[in-house]
Design brief:
Pectate Lyase C-like, globular, two-stranded antiparallel ribbon, 2 helices, single chain, little secondary structure
Length: about 240
């Protein structure tokens, strides 16, 4: 019952973020066109931009504001997104009219250090070997591919990580405490339960580095930890 309640809270938080973004002024079409043409838009204001399925491989978006933007299916592999604001953004999957198939966001090897991804939806996104050090992922939906991702000192309060593939990820110093929603509600980081189906879907943290991580408030039921370096420095069998 408690886990279901937490899932509902997370869904409400995500829905609130999207609704807040939809009421914002749309991104300037000229700025969007500049980004698509040059793949460079340092510090640009792209709030609420529609960039679904865009090819932005290797793009330079340092310090840009992409809050509430729709980036479903986008290719941002190798992009520089350090310090970017992606609060409430959609970085999940989208149907591609050209290929007639659904494709999911690709952020393989992207630099997201210090980025704000709070309440962002990254369901099924690929973030393998991405740099998410010191990123804010509070209440983010991260049932994603995070193989060998750098999550050192990242804020993962209340994040949805059930089913996430995080083998070899570096989580040293990451914050997996509870997120505070409103005045009283507390949402725990979820590594076990699929919030949509309620089914036990543990994350894979095999060979991950969890040194210095406080797991006291996290349900680790079924989480795969083979070869992981635990908070006390021991290696899980």
């Amino acid at each position: 019952m408690q886990l279901k309640a937490l899932g509902v809270v997370a869904l409400i938080a995500g829905a609130f973020s999207i609704l807040s973004g939809s009421s914002a002024t749309a991104a300037d079409p000229a700025t969007v066109a500049q980004l698509l043409a040059t793949k460079k838009c340092v510090g640009c204001i792209l709030i609420n931009a529609d960039l679904r399925n865009a090819d932005l491989k290797g793009a330079d978006l340092r310090g840009a504001d992409l809050s509430f933007a729709d980036l479903g299916g986008v290719d941002l592999s190798g992009a520089n997104l350090s310090g970017v604001k992606l609060e409430g953004a959609l970085l999940n999957c989208a149907f591609n009219d050209l290929t007639d198939i659904q494709q999911c966001a690709n952020l393989t090897g992207a630099n997201l250090s210090g980025a704000n991804l709070s309440t962002a939806n990254l369901l099924k996104a690929t973030l393998n070997q991405a740099n998410l050090s010191k990123a804010n992922l509070t209440l983010a939906h991260l049932s994603s591919f995070l193989i060998r991702a750098d999550l050192r000192d990242a804020i993962l309060r209340g994040a949805q990580l059930a089913g996430a593939e995080m083998s070899g990820a570096d989580l040293r110093g990451a914050n997996l405490g509870k997120a505070i929603v409103g005045d009283r509600l507390q949402v725990a980081t979820n590594l076990t339960i699929n919030q949509a189906s309620g089914v036990l879907t543990p994350a894979n943290l095999s060979q991950a580095n969890l040194q210095g991580v406080d797991l006291s408030q996290v349900d680790m039921t079924g989480v795969k930890l083979v070869g992981a370096i635990m908070p006390d420095g021991t290696v899980h069998p």
